[in-house]
Amino acid sequence: MAKEPQRQSKSPGSLAAQADRRKKLPRLSLKLIIIPAVAAFLAVTALVMQPITALTIRLPREKNRLVEAVKASTGEQLFLTYRHSVEKTKVQGVFEVAGKGLLNLATKMESVGTGLPNTSPERTTRQGKWLVVDEGKKLLPNIRFFLSPINQTQLTIGRKALDLNSLKSGSLLVIGVEHPSLAAWLKYIAGFGPWTPQGGQNEEVH
After folding, report:
1. Which key words are in the record (predicted)?
2. Tell me, what DSSP letter sits at residue 76?
3. Which of left, alpha, beta for 128 (phi over 0: left; psi -120 to 50: alpha)?
4. I need a labelling partner for 197 at 20 to 30 A (CA). Which of 35, 44, 58, 66 fits?
5. CA terminus-to-terminus distance, the chain
6. What are phi and psi of 45, to 5 degrees?
7. Is-contact 72 52, C-beta < 8 A?
8. Residue 179 gets which letter from DSSP?
9. CB-neighbour burial class of residue 197 (10 A; exposed 0-12, middle 13-18, buried 19+)
10. Are the beta carbons of 166 and 125 closer than 8 angstroms?
């Protein structure tokens, strides 16, 4: 008569080990979820806190109100073109976006005359219709000027023309380079308000 195979009884120690392994599995699964999630959160936080470069137009006599901002890149050129009120000829300032302001590259004029920028022979060349004065890449913290319809002022960076038509005549404009965080920039373009300017840029001018 065949004997039935004997069932091996598990010791209390092996049962406890199996139970312990079953308890550890959910903990390991939880860690596999939490650790990547925390890492991703920290990476996104670090990203949105990174500064970006923006070209801004502010009104210092109106509590430094931000009226225009364009994302820019270091080395990108800015063109400020206006018609001279006396000579009625065009003048164009050429600037370059830098980390701490704007580099003054050149001043272009259609002619020389009363009230127009000085031309030094050693720094002036003729380029088509323009007399071009090399300004030597002087670093400017910002550009300030009063807006007048007589001057027909135009401001262009890259291929984008900044609209100045909505501003009232006689407004004092400050064009500068600012470095808000990516989070502040995204908030601004989403329509939730501008960021606070850094340093002395938020001082009012009287």
Report:
1. Membrane, Transmembrane, Transmembrane helix
2. -
3. left
4. 44
5. 114
6. -60, -45
7. no
8. -
9. middle
10. no
Mean of pLDDT over the chain = 80
C-alpha 70/C-alpha 160 separation (Å) is 9
Q: How many CA atoms lie within 13 A of 21 on its CB side?
A: 6
β-strand partners of 106: 94, 134
Phi-psi domain of 40 (left: phi exceeds 0; alpha: psi -120 through 50; beta: other): alpha
| Other Cβ atoms closer than 10 A to 144 | 13
pLDDT at 176 over 90: yes
Euclidean distance between CA atoms 162 and 68, whole angstroms:
8
Q: What is the pLDDT of residue 41?
A: 58
- Residue 193 gets the label, from left (phi > 0), alpha (psi -120 to 50) or beta, of left
Percent of the chain at pLDDT > 70 equals: 68
**SS3 assignment, position 189:** helix
Helices 182-189 and 12-48: angle between axes, nearest 10 degrees = 70
- What tokens were used for 26? 């959910």
| Verdict on whether the full-model pTM lies above 0.90 | no
Report CA-CA distances (Å) from 182 to 48, 97, 102, 106, 122. Answer: 5, 18, 21, 31, 44
- Residue 11: which pLDDT band, with cuts at 50, 70 and 90? low
Which range has the worst mean pLDDT, 1-15, 40-54, 128-142? 1-15
User: HSE of 92 in the Cβ direction (CA atoms, 13 Å)?
Assistant: 15
